Amino acid sequence: MTDNTEQLEDMTREWNYHPDLPLDNPSVFKWPPNPAYLAGWLARNWLTLSERVMMAIAAVAFWFFFYPAIETAQTFAFGWIFQVWLVNFVMIFVVAGGLHWYFYMRKGQGKKLKFERRDQGTNNALWNFKDQVHDNMFWSLGSGVFQLTFFQVISMWLMANGYVPMITFAENPVWFLAFLVIIPMWSAFHFYWVHRLLHQPFLYKRVHALHHRNVNIGPWSGFSMHPIEHFIYLTTLCIHWILPSHPIHLYFHIIFQGPGAAMTHTGYEDLLIKDKRKLALGTFYHQLHHRYYECNYGNQEMPWDRWFGTFHDGSSEATSETRARKKRMYS
């Protein structure tokens, strides 16, 4: 039996499901550049009903029907601020709660494409309320929704008063569409570096460890963080204080950071409908991070982990390297 076969058998025993290993490199920043690959990536993400297109459609709907008009935000007032908070609360509750209900309560997909074998944790003093889901809901709907609303309110106030540059689709259609594509890429870049910061021992023990209680992640885990981590994580939204944008861009970014975190932490790779993959959810790339900690800090579409030596490809060798790196960090 070859070493590769033995390693695959070990991974099959360790996980309920995993994609083909070792993980490949889906980064759009491949060198030399591959125009055909880049065109395919753009088509998959923006010319089909992908999760990003669904978020963009939701952002337009929120702009039209749910969030207050941007002109309302010229002065701080309880009414419109409460409206923003309420919309964000319901949004997080519906997305994370709906995914949890479908996958973990209704068990609508069983364990098909589920990475971990275990269910969510209960009767364990590790969690507030001795329950993983209740703990995650507390931090997501409390600190998470509050701070998401805080950054959004400040951004809307800046836009409403002309303190930051704004655009419309009619004025600049190219930048309007390009910035929608750029926002997830910026978010991935920002996330990698603040995530590495949060894994420095001082901050990890006092702040980020709360999120990493979730080794076996679920939809409510994605936005469950210490208040300091929520603040650091959500500084990604400050890009709208610098670059020209529209409220739709801001709301797309809000959805990407909030409900998007619930989707990527579902614990399943894809949503199946009639046994066909219809919606991308979690990635084994990030699941490895929650299992082994000091690896895969970023997003699998971006090259940072590969460039800076923190990539875990799912192999036994990568696990050994990750454990050695963790030992060095905490020695």
From TrEMBL:
<feature type="transmembrane region" description="Helical">
    <location>
        <begin position="82"/>
        <end position="104"/>
    </location>
</feature>
<keyword id="KW-1133">Transmembrane helix</keyword>
<dbReference type="GO" id="GO:0016020">
    <property type="term" value="C:membrane"/>
</dbReference>
<keyword id="KW-0812">Transmembrane</keyword>
<dbReference type="GO" id="GO:0008610">
    <property type="term" value="P:lipid biosynthetic process"/>
</dbReference>
<protein>
    <submittedName>
        <fullName>Sterol desaturase family protein</fullName>
    </submittedName>
</protein>
<dbReference type="InterPro" id="IPR050307">
    <property type="entry name" value="Sterol_Desaturase_Related"/>
</dbReference>
<keyword id="KW-0472">Membrane</keyword>
<feature type="domain" description="Fatty acid hydroxylase">
    <location>
        <begin position="182"/>
        <end position="310"/>
    </location>
</feature>
<feature type="transmembrane region" description="Helical">
    <location>
        <begin position="138"/>
        <end position="159"/>
    </location>
</feature>
<dbReference type="Pfam" id="PF04116">
    <property type="entry name" value="FA_hydroxylase"/>
</dbReference>
<dbReference type="GO" id="GO:0005506">
    <property type="term" value="F:iron ion binding"/>
</dbReference>
<dbReference type="InterPro" id="IPR006694">
    <property type="entry name" value="Fatty_acid_hydroxylase"/>
</dbReference>
<dbReference type="GO" id="GO:0016491">
    <property type="term" value="F:oxidoreductase activity"/>
</dbReference>
<feature type="transmembrane region" description="Helical">
    <location>
        <begin position="174"/>
        <end position="194"/>
    </location>
</feature>
<feature type="transmembrane region" description="Helical">
    <location>
        <begin position="53"/>
        <end position="70"/>
    </location>
</feature>
